[in-house]
User: Fold this.
Amino acid sequence: MKPAELIVGTYTHTNSLGIYRVKFDPNSMSMDTLGITTDIQNPTFLAIHPSGSHVFAVSEIPIGLVYSYQIGEDGGLILQGVEETGGAGPCHIGLNRDGTSAVVSNYEGGSTAFFEIAPDGTIKKSNSFFQHYGSSVDGVRQTKPHVHSAIYSLENDEVFVADLGIDKIVTYGLKRTNNGIIPDRKRVKSTGIGFGPRHFCWHPSGRYLYCINELDSSISTFIHAADGFLTHLQTVSTIPSEVSRQNTCADIHISPDGKYVYGSNRGHDSIAIFAVDSLSGELTFKVAIPSGGNTPRNFALTPDGRFIFVANQDSNNIVIFEREATTGLMNPTGVETQIPLPVCIKFLLDPCITYSD
Assistant:
């Protein structure tokens, strides 16, 4: 693996400065900060254009904003545009596979906004906006909608939205018009009561959608049918049965070969590892590995699946693990870097690589 660059989103309400650009050299197992983009508040989630030429970032503030940047020849980020997201506290942005459309999740506002992306990488004003309604059983976290993430189907014809506040997965069908790609229908799938769905990842086949549930510390597996409907297959815990400490889940990813799913635990401060059944898509819990810090909110696998980078928000560090491809296990490398309040990691690698959340 050649040296890679990554960008790190942070909370800027303490001593963080914005979006950090870091170089990782797997030969020397070293990490060095290359630069910082300081023109944005709370860039808590990032997305890379499939061309590798642009970065998009949400600004998690009361009047939500989304920024588009061009990646300069030196790897620095050049601001191209800023648009309002239509809701408070945007916490996630997802792109479709060809990079022509984006969807932003407004956590505090409980809404979903769709954007077109121009050929030059500039994000346009929102062309569709949807306000969610309802509540669920948690008297603190679920008194209103809290849209936490959205992911496009591999075919680009649907978007699946995790609403933590109402325990629902909302699916928007998409169609292409003269005004771009817009939603044209909606379906709602209930998760378990009090689960708090947060983030998704697709099995490479597109057959299974995995959803990590923040409040219930679990992962739910759904079968994705050809007609777009989701069928619940199973829900498994992300923490060992003997663990009694308070815990919430955050991020989820799958290995490039589709054999292992990983989920982060905050409280237990670990990365849970699951084996994927090749026939049914069901998950089997293997082990939860300490994250090397406090509150692992986000993590990322290198596109080749060799390394896992874990962003520990409350201990201000990013820790590198080397992954065993055959067993799925994570081994500490002893390599880490200090970044204030890191909450999102994305890799800037070969432009021909397709990135997904």
Observations:
- The longest strand covers residues 180-190.
- Residues 147 and 319 are 28 Å apart (CA to CA).
- Confidence is low (pLDDT under 50) at residues 350-357.
